[in-house]
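Researcher: Let's run the pair from yesterday's discussion. Sequence first, then tokens, for each.
Model: Starting with the first of the pair.
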Amino acid sequence: MTVSVKPIRSPADYEQALREIETLMAAQPGSPEEDRLEVLAALVAAYEAKQGVAASADPISVLQFALRAQGKGQKDVAATLGSRSRASEVLSRKRHLSADMVEKLSRAFAIPAHLLAVPYEVATGRLRRIIGGGAVATVVVLGLMGAGTGLLFWHYGQDLPEVASLATYQPPSLVRRDDKGRLLEHRSFVPLTEIPPHVVKAFLVAEDQDFYDHGGVSTRAILRASLQNIASLGINPAGGSTISQQVAKNVLLPGQPRSLERKIKEVILARRIEANLTKDRILEIYLNQIYFGGSAYGIAAASQAYFGKAPHDLTLAEAAYLAALPKAPNHYRLDMAENRDRAKDRRDWVLARMADDGLITPTAAHLAAGEPLVISN
């Protein structure tokens, strides 16, 4: 389906787009209205990036995004506030949030209280900016939730690499050294069937919790990242990329600089990858391609580099640590002493997420978190 949206070329077009976005905020998932909302969000983000538009986060918009990210709605707000009419009035902007409401909503939906306490106009019919100018990329990512629709996606969808080649693609196995014999790059392919379930689960929790449920782009992951970036004011921004998007970026778009254009291409290619490959095949490519820091590329090389063993011998704690690396390899590498504390914190976060999702027991997570995190000699 194609969504026809007028390009944003002037302040008047921009204001009109903001008004329309607000009317579309209640669109049902998968509906034409949501498709239009997503394309408009991408166009607004691109216009704001050029114009340097910046404004405060609107508390009601923040609340709405948090609800969508957590799969919740007005009835959950009503339960939190103890009143259906109060919830309706808040979400329709007919009343301000009191200090008591801010505290309850913040606690119930894990929203930083200061975001809900920002003053805002009641029933003005105008959507405020969701994110300040320092975090425009988050809105761009948000606007890509319905990738494959609209003129932007048609334009950037031309002349992209063919995804059919991935059906037979196998990340290379190689060892590359410099002229002094120092290891520069190590890759070793291992089939998904030889990677134990607890290792796979750790990566899914850390990198793409909804991998087996989405079609290449995860709306919930994007919304979670958007909310996190709003809270952090765009400092150390989180991403919403799925495993399929990362395969598109690393295998089909290697070396391309981060940009709106590349992000759109990633999303389009991720959709095409999902249409041509099985989930297990996508996951196999990802686990064998991803960078783990130092010279290690792929799960086999990383297992050997950090723990001196093959993936099938990894403990739960070791698997959780390796799953923590792709987010920021040089930030969590064990061979760098200054990383030790944050590496353990990140590993323990993965273990806690696994327990929260019911993939391991709380006892298993507690015992694994107690294991020393040391690199193999």
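Model: Moving on to the second of the pair.
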Amino acid sequence: MKNNYLFIVILLLGMSISAQTFTLKSKELGGQATNKQLLNGFGCVGENISPQLFWENAPKGTKSFAITMYDESAPTGSGWWHWIVFDIPANLVELKANAGNPTQKLVPSTVIQSMTDFKTKGYGGPCPPEGSGFHKYLITIHALNTDKLGLDENANPALVGFMLQQHLIEKATLVFYFKK
């Protein structure tokens, strides 16, 4: 009987350890974008505030993070990059709301927010074309095996994406939707 209890304790301990996966979360972002996250431009009148994000259980060997926001439903043939942030120090585990506004200086000065498909730096919220249905937005955190990607704020999304793949340890994604 005593051995059975010991076995159950070991089994439960093993299950709780294995359930701790790299995870991206938000205290304010749900399944649908709100006016707070929407772009102010391109026919939208949102607040264009990037959502608060935090992450847990970074994989061993993580030296930095990157965050991307991508609309895979954009009618471009290649999607639309809304936000690209990299060289986030490994000891940082949260981005506050509006961290995507570079003028607010809510991230360390070493963090780089590079060019989006809006041809701007920083966060550009959802604003899909009228009548194009629900768009699926993916906010992904990338755990990287390097402190720096070696890119600057003028790097385009394709180049950043290539470098992220070269240094990727693990990633986690939040999904939300919006329709205009």
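Researcher: Give me one sentence on the second I can quote.
Model: The two ends are 62 Å apart (CA to CA).
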